[in-house]
Write a structure and sequence with these properties.
The complex is a heterodimer of chains A (101) and B (215). Chain A is an all-alpha fold and 101 residues long. Chain A has one domain (24-98). Chain A has helices at residues 2-6, 31-36, 45-60, 65-68, 70-77, 81-98. The mean pLDDT of chain A is 84. With 215 residues, chain B is mainly alpha-helical. Chain B has two domains: 6-99, RNA polymerase sigma factor, region 2, helix turn helix motif (Rna Polymerase Sigma Factor, Chain: A); 110-196, Arc Repressor Mutant, subunit A (Orthogonal Bundle), CATH 1.10.10.10. Chain B starts with 5 loop residues before the first helix and ends in a 28-residue tail after the last helix. The model of chain B is unreliable at 200-205 (pLDDT under 50). Classes of the chains: A mainly alpha (101), B mainly alpha (215). Chains A and B meet through helix 2, helix 3, helix 4, helix 5 and helix 6 of A and helix 2, helix 3, helix 4, helix 5 and helix 8 of B.
């Protein structure tokens, strides 16, 4: 890789490395469910992401995350594809990193 | 690799001697391994440029992490917090790459969504009706944004770029649209007003929320 860069060989476009499954979520909640879970006050994606580390560790400890992080929980259950993907990736990252000797 | 608790990470990363270099090196390794695991089903790991992209994402994340060290409140493990930032950097970039060439559609029907499971005539009638009230209640921009997110399944990172807005502004735009649609469904008697639900159906959490401190 470093050799390629030293020779200024351009990287393959990132899009060409994507797995075919990376795209629209395969199981989005239907619009009615999204609307039923719409609240006057909600956490947006940035606010949800700010709490995602605590939420993930709460899941690890089997805490009652629905009560501890109700806004995060509803945001995820409304099916936000970006935040759900970040949750899944974060869980995978921690799992792998925890196995480092 | 040195074992560090949260305080030690902060102390080492803010020191002005060799501890900082060593801590940065350790953190880079931890984040890189975590990211490779996180992108397992997202990128082709056997591609010659996979490692290079991961390295780029981690370097960008390390810059953000060092800039935001003062924001870390110690409410999670430091490494979890750092992984979170790295994941966000990587996935945001990947989502933009995935959706860069896909145009926004403002004329796509909800019923035409491949995700719309039309298992019955009632489902189809419901979607047709929702489409009608979307046309009546929402602004063109709200329809475009909601269609991109809920019908096309597009990432909000990509929609933000295409609409030339911010994540916060996009979220508000779509949140307002969802509230309008929900209020219309309640007026039409299709949906129950949560405010009128029986108290027992609206349980208060027994555990105090930890979100308050972030409000």
């Amino acid at each position: 890789m470093l050799d390629r860069r030293a020779k200024e060989i351009p990287l393959t476009p990132l899009k060409d490395l994507l797995q075919p499954g990376f795209g629209p979520p395969t199981a989005m909640p239907d619009l009615r469910t999204i609307l039923e879970m719409t609240d006057e006050e909600e956490l947006d994606c940035d606010q949800t992401c700010e709490l995602l580390d605590q939420y993930v560790e709460g899941l690890e400890r089997h805490d009652n995350v629905t009560a501890l992080f109700p806004g995060v929980d509803r945001h995820l259950k409304r099916g936000c594809p970006d935040c759900n993907a970040e949750l899944k990736a974060l869980q995978a990252a921690i799992e792998v990193a925890d196995t480092i000797p | 690799m040195t074992e560090r608790d949260n305080a030690r990470w902060i102390e080492d990363l803010t020191s002005e001697d060799g501890r900082r270099t060593e801590a940065l090196g350790d953190l880079r390794i931890i984040l890189l391994r975590g990211l490779v695991g996180a992108l397992h089903n997202v990128l082709q790991q056997d591609h010659q440029d996979f490692a290079g992209y991961c390295e780029d994402f981690v370097q960008e994340a390390l810059i953000i992490i060092l800039r935001r060290l003062g924001d870390f409140q110690g409410l999670s493990r430091f490494t979890t917090w750092a992984h979170k930032i790295t994941i966000r950097v990587a996935l945001a970039e990947l989502r933009r790459a995935r959706w860069n060439d896909v145009p926004l559609k403002d004329d796509e029907s909800i019923a035409s969504s491949p995700d719309a499971a039309l298992e019955s005539v009632e489902d189809h009638m419901m979607l047709t009706w929702v489409q009608k009230i979307m046309d009546e209640e929402l602004t063109p921009l709200q329809k475009t944004a909601l269609t991109a997110l809920a019908v096309q399944g597009m990432s909000s990172d990509a929609v933000v770029v295409k609409l030339g807005t911010t994540r916060g502004a996009l979220y508000k735009l779509v949140h307002d649209a969802r509230l309008k649609l929900r209020q219309r469904l309640i007026r039409e008697g299709v949906m129950v007003d949560p405010a009128e639900q029986k108290p027992k159906e609206r349980k208060s959490p027994a555990v105090p929320s930890r979100e308050v401190e972030h409000a």
